Input
Amino acid sequence: MANSTLDRARRAFDNPRIMNRNQLNVTDMASTVSAYLGKNKTIWQGVPAITATVAEVDAAIAAIAGADTKQQIPTGGAAEDKATVRHDYEDQIVLIADQLASLAAKKKDAVLEAQVALSLATLDKLSAEDLEAAGKRVSGLATANLTALADYGITAADVTALDNLTTKFHGAKTAPREAVVDRKKQTDTLPGMIANLHSILRRQLDRQMTTFKRTNAEFYAGYLSARVIVARGGGGGKKPAPTSPAPAK
Output
């Protein structure tokens, strides 16, 4: 994994997030271990099994940081986008509907006039599904009367603009719910990801590091120090990790 990617993952754990205290403690410890090992590659990188495990740890840290970031993305933006699209959509519907209604009145076509008797106040009260249905209805009626509508300043480009807004609104109307679902998905997957990271450290890397217990006791002691999980304070502030002793040269 590129160092820049891993550095971004480590920095992500220093920002406010929604993970609980125990999860933060584990991820902080793992980041400390990763940083310590990264500074002492020359000691362990000649052991293929350790190299593979460290890569696995770093990948797990980056994945957790990514999920944590997604978990924090505000869902309000999707709702705001939906409101903006709806405003433009309603304006375009009324623009065409008013001219259709005027044409219908001139032709004494009461059925057509009733179908397009719409106002912004009326559209505001419609559900998203009903608004989309109204947009499609107005588009179809405008297309059927496009030649006559030319005298009212309505062109095929106006109808196309309405159809494009229909497509855009269709996508935007479910976006807020999708954003909430995606955020919950990250919340639900984080515990398993963190448990997996802890398992890799405990069941693989801890055992692999014992090879240095005699050959490089100072480095091994530093690793054990980095592996200590430091409990966060009640205020949520981050306590400094224990200082790892410098490995033997």
